[in-house]
Amino acid sequence: MDYNLKLKKCSRCKEYLPLNKFSIDKKTKSGHQSYCKKCRKEMYHENRHINKIKEKEYRMKNPINIWAMHTRNNHQRRGIKINISVKKLTELGEMAVKNGCYYCGTKFDIRNSQGKAGEFTSNAMTVDLIDSNRKVMDEQNIRILCHSCNSGKGTLNEEEFLLKCKKIVERWSNDLK
């Protein structure tokens, strides 16, 4: 037996087990969780129904925070470098909910931003990279737009998009009167 092997006592089953039987937790003094992996798995299954209810309640109470986490994760998955915290993006999202879309002023429906098949509704809150070529999400390179404006803008930079909008208005202004 290896005498250098460190053991830890599980707070639930009271067994002494090797450290590799515990998940890492940097917040604890030992650097590992207090319950072994087996006990944590059992506890998860015992409380699955309660956890789902709590998670749903959290999502309902904190929709903008959930939006910020998903937005960051989705951009990161697409290869965008993330230089903005969830907290800061949540703050910007809260301001956007009050002010509406940066371009058209549409008010966001944060609790119902996706339709049945997961497609965005036109007033869904989305993050646009002002300069898509930079591939960086930071406070200086984002605007919070409705899905319609973000889709219309596509990969155009802000100046190109505004010129495109101006041309559309000029072309159709006589018909709108």
UniProtKB/TrEMBL annotation:
Source taxon at top rank: Archaea
Name this protein carries in UniProt: HNH endonuclease
Organism of derivation: Methanobacterium lacus (strain AL-21)
